[in-house]
Amino acid sequence: MGLSARLRRExxxxxxxxxxxxxxxxxxQAATFHIDHVIPQVSGGASTLDNLALACVQCSLRKGARKKxxxxxxxxxxxxxxxxxxxxxxxxRWSGTKLVGITASGRATVAALHLNSLEHLLIRGFEYQxxxxxxxxxx
Length: 139
Description:
Helix content is 30%, strand content 16%. By secondary structure, it is of the alpha+beta class. The chain has one domain. The model has no long low-confidence stretch (mean pLDDT 94).
């Protein structure tokens, strides 16, 4: 069963129409952002506001049903960043248009979702020219 229009709107408003993983604004994007189940449905994640996040197409498709990934520094499997339970700024920082993971979960998320792919960097460069990068501080 699909999500209600009201629930989709609530997710978008809470996220300020930005991907909750990479910070990309949905303004000017050709593809509609996805509503992501932070804990995937196949792992028992519910379709409730506290388990949903707004995600750009790239982040959504790369995350898929994963909950964990390898920390690029230690190689250990760690939980991916959880936008409902963790504060974005505690796990990531910007270095120009590059996103840097500053915790094990941050590094694993950057690597698993390819958050510094050529596509992401090009879009962020364009967003910078439009005054939309870096995004406002995440909460």
